[in-house]
Design goal:
The chain is of the alpha/beta class. It has one domain: Dihydrofolate Reductase, subunit A. Helices cover 27% and strands 29% of the residues. Strands 4-3-2-5-1-6-8-7 form an eight-stranded mixed beta sheet, sandwiched between helices. β7 and β8 form a beta hairpin. The chain starts with a strand and ends in a 6-residue tail after the last strand.
Length: 192
């Protein structure tokens, strides 16, 4: 059985939009202005090595499919070779190798994927998808790299939910120029 692992670059005020600068957001590339340090790079590399598959929303998928095939190195090789699942109602034929489009009910599709795919199914970006996964208790682990910056506007990671979503902090550390890496898992309700 697989685990859904959401990994995000996020500002102190919850903005996750355009951390790399490719989307035209007025603060695009905001993560490059703060040094992650060797430990931050090591964290992302280990996370990628441990990934069994990618699960992405259409917008993030199309950005990744445009960027990663032309890249070299271990990180790019892993992204390009592993299975990729894209949630979309409009994408018909994915161009990036080893890609499958998940159509229809997102909750059912992702639940089925968790049953059939072994290992960590990692979600990058994909705000709308992540909000749906969180709202439906499908996220097993949430990994946040919280950058010490307030952006004031932009797409936010967390959206409305129908109920509280208790989480348990399982690891934390600070890397680079004050970036907090926070790892949360669902706080499962204990049977009485």
């Amino acid at each position: 059985m697989g685990r859904i692992v959401v990994t995000e670059f996020i500002s102190l005020d919850g903005v996750m939009e355009d951390p790399g600068g490719a989307e035209g957001f007025k603060y695009g590339g905001w993560t490059f202005k703060i040094e992650q340090g060797e430990e931050g790079g090591k964290f992302k590399m280990e996370e990628t090595r441990d990934s069994a598959a990618l699960l992405l929303g259409r917008v993030t998928y199309q950005e990744f499919a445009k960027a990663w095939p032309s890249q070299d190195g271990e990180f790019a090789h892993k992204f390009n070779s592993m299975p990729k699942y894209v949630v979309s109602s409009t994408l018909e034929k994915p161009d990036w190798n080893n890609s499958t489009v998940l159509k229809g009910d997102v909750v059912k599709s992702v639940s089925k994927l968790k049953q059939t795919q072994k290992g960590d199914i990692v979600v990058h970006g994909s705000a709308k998808l992540v909000q749906t996964l969180i709202a439906n208790d499908l996220v097993d682990e949430l990994r946040l790299m919280v950058f010490p910056v307030v952006l004031g506007s932009g797409k936010r990671l967390f959206g409305p939910t129908t109920d509280q979503k208790p989480l348990r902090l399982v690891d934390s550390k600070t890397v680079g120029d004050g970036i907090a890496i926070l790892i949360y898992q669902q706080a499962r309700k204990e049977a009485k």
